[in-house]
Amino acid sequence: MAYSDKVIDHYSNPRNVGTLDKSKKNVGTGLVGAPECGDVMRLQIEVDEATNTITDAKFKTFGCGSAIASSSLATEWLKGKTVDEALAIDNMEIVEELALPPVKIHCSVLAEDAIKSAINDYRVKNGMPALEEAKAHH
Amino acid sequence: MLKLPIYLDNNATTPLDPRVLEAMMPYLTEVFGNAASRNHPFGWAAEEAVDYAREQIAALISCDPKEIIFTSGATESDNLGIKGVFEMYAQKGNHVITATTEHKAILDTCKHLEKLGGRVTYLPVDDQGLISLADLEAAMTPETVLVTIMYGNNETGTIQPIREIAAIAHKHGALFMTDGTQAVGKIPVDVIADGIDIMAFTAHKMYGPKGVGALYVRRKNPRVKVTAQMDGGGHERGMRSGTLNVPGIVGLGKACELARLEMAADTERLSAMRDRLERELLTLEESYVNGSRERRLPHVTNISFKYVEGEGLMMGVKDLAVSSGSACTSASLEPSYVLKALGLSDDLAHSSLRFGLSRFTTDEQIDYAINHVKEAVTKLREMSPLWEMFKEGIDLSKIEWAEH
């Protein structure tokens, strides 16, 4: 399969690979996918509680090039956004930006799930109600 | 200077040997006759070339030249062998035995038989990829007309105990067929000593052209017949109609001759390179060879690199042409059924690469491949959450994954 230049760029030079301290109260962690499906994404956000803004985002992904690129792109987009803005990120925006072919759309869905799952974790940790959507996607 | 990418997918297809092309050339140009034209020298020249190719092929697999039926390739040969026996021996019975790790050309043909009212037993394999002879013995019935088990596996290179399987089939009055696609031309195959009644093979896996293959059909002890699956001029002793692909057949013949003459030297060189590649890659933590290492084709290795996904890995080894047990091209993400049949978990099957070396593979290419794979695996593990969890001592099987 031919990958787009943007997928190749993110795969070759992934942004924000790494790990945030998940024990911190202002860090939300999302772990989505399953090894037997061939994709696992872990996406983490660090939130400035005063402004409700995402100050840092990190990922690690087990998966194909499109999955790695989707999560790398997601971390790029998350930084500087408010939590509410982050919640509005739609998987089709990732599809468009990376020019993913139809068979790779599930990679973008997984990235959106990872974002929502990380935000949800942050919310629950900080005494806010869980998002309904994070569980309803599958 | 090393030319990139390096081709290490020779179980998919091999390049044409220049000596094969040279033998074929006249039959693509001036010697263009139809081998079935009996009335003029154009036809005679073509027929002579086909007969010579039959002899070259027969010498490689120790059969009589008349026992070779030319086809378009291994898929057609597999279809003709299985369907042809099923139809020809319908009065004796309707039961066929095969294995779960066979090529789709065998498995899907067997499924077709089931639709026609046939009964098929799919034998499981052990963690080495080998069927159990006791299982085979137990599966044999008076209605069993055919046992079809591949010689060497296309994904792992595992070689089945062919002689023992043939003996069991014959003891129960069934015919024994083998898909020899990956084995013929790579290891010694002797249809008499091995007890093979029917064998499918193809030119393009042994440095011949694509689009031509053969079916060996035994003529003596016992005399085997297969019902033709295409109607027409009754070529190939009535078993396969269609004008013979003379240049292709000449190429198959030449490829078989070269294989016979060079097999011993090729095997020694290729298995040494393969072993070196394997030894070096196994120095990476959590990497495993799939299939039997004792009973294996000399030019193949299939390795799983745990915690790295196969398709992502293939993208990382972009300077190599290899294939992966991961087929991450749909939402269902089906990993290799062959590796799963060996008992590999889905994630380990997703993490595999298959390397197939050829007569044209060099030590320099293997050196490059070793470094390239090591770098890619290391880089991908650094961005793999599973690797991080493994390193932290987390048992991944205990995690409740959010499946999608």
TrEMBL record, chain A:
<dbReference type="InterPro" id="IPR011339">
    <property type="entry name" value="ISCU"/>
</dbReference>
<dbReference type="GO" id="GO:0016226">
    <property type="term" value="P:iron-sulfur cluster assembly"/>
</dbReference>
<protein>
    <recommendedName>
        <fullName>Iron-sulfur cluster assembly scaffold protein IscU</fullName>
    </recommendedName>
</protein>
<comment type="similarity">
    <text>Belongs to the NifU family.</text>
</comment>
<dbReference type="GO" id="GO:0051536">
    <property type="term" value="F:iron-sulfur cluster binding"/>
</dbReference>
<comment type="function">
    <text>A scaffold on which IscS assembles Fe-S clusters. It is likely that Fe-S cluster coordination is flexible as the role of this complex is to build and then hand off Fe-S clusters.</text>
</comment>
<dbReference type="InterPro" id="IPR002871">
    <property type="entry name" value="NIF_FeS_clus_asmbl_NifU_N"/>
</dbReference>
<keyword id="KW-0411">Iron-sulfur</keyword>
<dbReference type="Pfam" id="PF01592">
    <property type="entry name" value="NifU_N"/>
</dbReference>
<feature type="domain" description="NIF system FeS cluster assembly NifU N-terminal">
    <location>
        <begin position="2"/>
        <end position="126"/>
    </location>
</feature>
<keyword id="KW-0479">Metal-binding</keyword>
<keyword id="KW-0408">Iron</keyword>
<dbReference type="GO" id="GO:0005506">
    <property type="term" value="F:iron ion binding"/>
</dbReference>
Automatic annotation (TrEMBL), chain B:
<keyword id="KW-0663">Pyridoxal phosphate</keyword>
<feature type="active site" description="Cysteine persulfide intermediate">
    <location>
        <position position="328"/>
    </location>
</feature>
<dbReference type="GO" id="GO:0030170">
    <property type="term" value="F:pyridoxal phosphate binding"/>
</dbReference>
<feature type="binding site">
    <location>
        <position position="182"/>
    </location>
    <ligand>
        <name>pyridoxal 5'-phosphate</name>
    </ligand>
</feature>
<comment type="function">
    <text>Master enzyme that delivers sulfur to a number of partners involved in Fe-S cluster assembly, tRNA modification or cofactor biosynthesis. Catalyzes the removal of elemental sulfur atoms from cysteine to produce alanine. Functions as a sulfur delivery protein for Fe-S cluster synthesis onto IscU, an Fe-S scaffold assembly protein, as well as other S acceptor proteins.</text>
</comment>
<comment type="pathway">
    <text>Cofactor biosynthesis; iron-sulfur cluster biosynthesis.</text>
</comment>
<keyword id="KW-0175">Coiled coil</keyword>
<dbReference type="Pfam" id="PF00266">
    <property type="entry name" value="Aminotran_5"/>
</dbReference>
<dbReference type="InterPro" id="IPR015422">
    <property type="entry name" value="PyrdxlP-dep_Trfase_small"/>
</dbReference>
<feature type="modified residue" description="N6-(pyridoxal phosphate)lysine">
    <location>
        <position position="205"/>
    </location>
</feature>
<dbReference type="InterPro" id="IPR015421">
    <property type="entry name" value="PyrdxlP-dep_Trfase_major"/>
</dbReference>
<dbReference type="GO" id="GO:0044571">
    <property type="term" value="P:[2Fe-2S] cluster assembly"/>
</dbReference>
<dbReference type="GO" id="GO:0051537">
    <property type="term" value="F:2 iron, 2 sulfur cluster binding"/>
</dbReference>
<feature type="binding site">
    <location>
        <position position="243"/>
    </location>
    <ligand>
        <name>pyridoxal 5'-phosphate</name>
    </ligand>
</feature>
<dbReference type="GO" id="GO:0031071">
    <property type="term" value="F:cysteine desulfurase activity"/>
</dbReference>
<keyword id="KW-0808">Transferase</keyword>
<dbReference type="InterPro" id="IPR015424">
    <property type="entry name" value="PyrdxlP-dep_Trfase"/>
</dbReference>
<keyword id="KW-0963">Cytoplasm</keyword>
<dbReference type="InterPro" id="IPR016454">
    <property type="entry name" value="Cysteine_dSase"/>
</dbReference>
<keyword id="KW-0479">Metal-binding</keyword>
<comment type="subunit">
    <text>Homodimer. Forms a heterotetramer with IscU, interacts with other sulfur acceptors.</text>
</comment>
<feature type="binding site" description="via persulfide group">
    <location>
        <position position="328"/>
    </location>
    <ligand>
        <name>[2Fe-2S] cluster</name>
    </ligand>
</feature>
